[in-house]
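Appendix B, record 7
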Amino acid sequence: MSTSLKTLGGVFVLALSLLAADSPFVGTWKQSPTKSKMEDSGLGSTRLVRIEQDGAGLKISVEATLQGQPNNFTYQATLDNKPTKVTGTPGFDEIWTMRADDHTITASGRKAGAVVFTDRRVVSGNGKTLTIFRSGTNAEGKPFKATMVFDRQ
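Structure tokens (predicted):
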């Protein structure tokens, strides 16, 4: 085997191992109410977010409360900016997710085809904090901005 083929093979193996490496998003995250700013968002409160590696994407499970009622849901974050169905929450029924870089994911949630929020989700360099910067429209149709801060468990 030629040296260039061996080098190409080594680069291919390295690229595959990097793709298979766990995302810094993977883990269990608990929302910090004191660090989060969600006034007038109508988002309720999120207790836990569990993120698991799922092939090239992520499986996200959310335990939340909306208007005093459980609002738990799960979805696949494909990270390829293609729509994924979401069930179990009245706020949105589809989500588009895209990896911006190793520590940043962008997302947009839609309800009946209309965009109801856009996110920038960032894991800190030390991997201990997940911050979601959200802009959207609440249930009354009013625009809002929210910052949700989560600590790794």
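Remarks on this record: Helices lie at 3-20. DSSP finds one helix and eleven strands in the chain.
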